[in-house]
Amino acid sequence: MYLKIHDTPKGRIVAACEEQLIGRVLEGDGAYIDLDSYRGFYIGKKADGKELKDALARFSSVNLVGKGPVDVAVSMGLIDRKDVMYINKIPYIQIYRL
After folding, report:
1. The model scores a pTM over 0.70
2. Quick check: 74 and 84 in contact, CB under 8 A?
3. Domains plus CATH for the chain?
4. pLDDT, tens digit, for every residue of 61-93?
5. Could you tell me whether strands 31-34 and 45-46 are parallel, antiparallel, or unpaired per DSSP bridges?
6. Burial degree of 44 (CB within 10 A; 0-12, 13-18, 19+)
């Protein structure tokens, strides 16, 4: 998977996406994720589940696309499996800490 951390004045954004999804546009059921035009948002370094878990220890918001990244967040208890969203059977989540 790709992992990119965006440190901004308003907090830390953690973005991760399955490598094979980069370059695709996911659309369906009223949802839309452009992983082609916005590939730079997700492409940072190649990472494994442990590295993503470490990154998810501190964040303001999270954008995860694909089974691997979403499974890490579920295993950490950041989101319940029933709250995971899907576009054409591809899981994705967005989490915001206020």
Report:
1. yes
2. yes
3. 2-96 (3.30.1860.10)
4. 999 999 999 999 999 999 999 999 999 999 999
5. unpaired
6. middle
